[in-house]
Amino acid sequence: MSLTLSENKKDDRQAGVAWIRERLGPRSIVLIGLMGAGKTAVGRRLASRLELPFVDADSEIETAAGSTISEIFAEHGEAYFRQGERKVIARLLDSGPQVLATGGGAYMDPGTRANIKSHGVSVWLKADLKVLLKRVGRRDNRPLLAAGDPAQVMKQLISKRYPIYAEADITVESRDVPHDVMVGTVIDAIAVKLGYRPKTARRRKKAK
Ligand code: S3P
Predict the structure, then answer these.
(1) 35 lines ligand 1 (CB under 6 A)
(2) Model confidence at 12, in pLDDT bands (50, 70, 90)?
(3) I need a labelling partner for 112 at 20 to 30 A (CA). Which of 75, 96, 101, 170 fits?
């Protein structure tokens, strides 16, 4: 069942957006999940629906470093990249509210995880292997996948990371559906997490 918040009626949608924004306060909505889960694509649309700025942590890291993620990995190694990632995300989390898409490894860092917990509402876009591989196959800008057989690497990352990603405030299955459909599902899940009750539940309570 869909909530009023993601319905198509303009007034309801606007009221829903205002309601979420008020409950969110200065916190950011932080998207986490593996490469190919749709964090950037969904995040961009989510931000536009909620009338919030969208920030992509990977792009911010590239801007700060003046080089691409592939170049950072090749020239300085993964540990150096992770150090920069931690710093950039800490800085970004201080300037909410916003929708913040993080790189797949960011949430694995305990400090970043704690920071996200205190400054944001985290949403794990959980996708299965097939969906992830289909999506990442389209681009070759991910050094971790370039280091071996993408399916094997992805399987290992799933077994290592999914138990940690499960600590997110909200989990949404990232299905192979249009991004706008995903955005509706994410908005509903955020609303419920922030304390929203669907109209039908409210009516039922009133009737008692
Ligand atoms: C990484 C994911 C990438 C990027 C880097 C490392 C990871 O971001 O941060 O290549 O460790 O999973 P996306 O998840 O946005 O592709």
Answers:
(1) yes
(2) confident
(3) 75
- The CA-CA-CA angle for residues 165, 94, 36, to 5°, reads 35
Q: Return d(Cα 185, Cα 172) in angstroms, integer.
A: 8
Q: Which of 32, 72, 140, 144 to mutate to test the pocket of ligand 1 (most atoms within 8 A of CB)?
A: 144
Residue 31: what are its φ and ψ, rounded to 5°?
A: -90, 130
Residue closest via CA to ligand 1's atom 4 equals 103
Backbone torsion region of residue 172, taken as left when φ is above 0, otherwise alpha when ψ lies between -120 and 50, otherwise beta: beta
Evaluate whether 145 touches 152 at the Cβ level (below 8 Å). no
Tell whether ligand 1 has an atom less than 6 A from the beta carbon of residue 198.
no
Protein residue with its CA nearest to atom 9 in ligand 1: 103
pTM of whole model > 0.90?
Answer: yes
DSSP string, 134-164: HHHTT----HHHHTS-HHHHHHHHHHHHHHH
Residue 137 structure tokens:
């196959």
- Residue 190: its pLDDT value, please? 97
What pLDDT shows up at residue 14?
Answer: 83
